[in-house]
Amino acid sequence: MQQHILVILPHPDDEAFGLAGTMAKYLKNGDKVTYACLTLGEMGRNMGVPPFANRVTLPEIRKKELEESCQAIGVTDLRMLGFHDKTIEFEDQDHLDSVILSLIEELSPSLVITFYPGYSVHPDHDACGEAVVRTIGRLPEEQRPIVHAMAFSKNTIQVLGEPDIHHDVRAFLGQKMASIQAHRSQFQAAELLGNKTLDDKEIQDRFGTERFWTYRFD
Description:
By secondary structure, this protein is α/β, with parallel strands linked by helices. It has one domain (4-214): LmbE-like (Rossmann fold). It is 40% helix and 17% strand. The protein has helices at 14-28, 58-73, 93-107, 123-137, 156-160, 173-182, 189-193, 201-207, and strands at 4-9, 32-37, 77-80, 111-115, 146-150, 165-168, 209-214. A seven-stranded mixed beta sheet has the order 3-2-1-4-5-7-6, with helices on both faces. Helix 2 (58-73) packs antiparallel against helix 6 (173-182) and helix 3 crosses helix 4. It is globular, with a radius of gyration of 17 Å. The model has no long low-confidence stretch (mean pLDDT 94).
């Protein structure tokens, strides 16, 4: 049965390491994927190596990198929501929640993927996840999509336990590395590979599984 998956993340490149393979896998299975990115990451510190961006040009560069990443993954429904980088926690909650609710009402996703609030290191990550689960938590239980959340703070396993969702994405490593490489102002994908190929066991082990926690609403 075809699903509609809604991915809600705050920055261009948030998708690359954590769920590029998962999105590619869902698309390969015939599911629909919508990626809603809250900001353009315009306050990011990285400007490329050697630098090719500056504070003025970075937003447009990161927009194009995000579009290239989505093309590599196969995502055709990309929504850029226009919030300001590094301020998601300070946004008017009613406005932020209403934007998220509008997407859910429009798309009726069966699954939403975001960051796990409180366990995702960056304030924008946590604020994004908080807004998603806050909005979905207000829906009647029978109308709530499932939420899968990424988390990587040091105490994640200690508090949340082991992730309950594991996606084997080894067959999609080409798309995943192309997604990472698309964000060239932020990462040097060649450095991640070194002299190894995608078939190398070390690369397969490092990048070949993507893990999520199912968010449990009280």
